[in-house]
């Protein structure tokens, strides 16, 4: 089973995260940020991943350190669970409509981390979650997982819908990219 556990402790957060790529779509635990937990649960369900999170963070400051650090640890967990990235489909893309909003994700598990993020918000936050942290989460995730990640919301009005559609699109695209696809690296170079 492709699974890993990462523990990361700083002065701002203490996180233990377990990721199973071949799970049943379950999220357990809490970040302490209700809307972010909702997004992590959506990510687990739509990716078919099991995600267990045990953490504390300096939420008395704001949500920044907690959200970014979960992105770091989730990226590290994905990289470790994949091993050498051999035998996976490597690429994935997906469109998710959520009421009036549409989100698109395309990704390449290439070992070359990069993020293109295009989403405008109407409000500064959804609950205790700062909307700007969506891009920070995905940047931390892409950098630490070695993923080229493109995320875009071309239209939408409700910030909750836009952000949730992004998490779901990323989960579906990742599910496709990590699916088994024979042996070896899917690369004309022979390595990723």
From TrEMBL:
A Pfam entry, by short name: IGPD
PROSITE patterns: IGP_DEHYDRATASE_1, IGP_DEHYDRATASE_2
One record GO biological process: L-histidine biosynthetic process
Enzyme Commission number(s) from the entry: 4.2.1.19
GO cellular component terms given for this protein: cytoplasm
Pathway, per record: Amino-acid biosynthesis; L-histidine biosynthesis; L-histidine from 5-phospho-alpha-D-ribose 1-diphosphate: step 6/9
Keyword Cytoplasm: yes
Reaction equation(s) it catalyzes: D-erythro-1-(imidazol-4-yl)glycerol 3-phosphate = 3-(imidazol-4-yl)-2-oxopropyl phosphate + H2O
Keywords: Amino-acid biosynthesis, Cytoplasm, Histidine biosynthesis, Lyase
Compartments (UniProt record): Cytoplasm
Cited SUPFAM superfamilies: Ribosomal protein S5 domain 2-like
GO molecular function annotations of the record: imidazoleglycerol-phosphate dehydratase activity
Family: Belongs to the imidazoleglycerol-phosphate dehydratase family.
Name listed for the protein in its UniProt record: Imidazoleglycerol-phosphate dehydratase
Lineage of origin: Bacteria, Bacillati, Bacillota, Clostridia, Eubacteriales
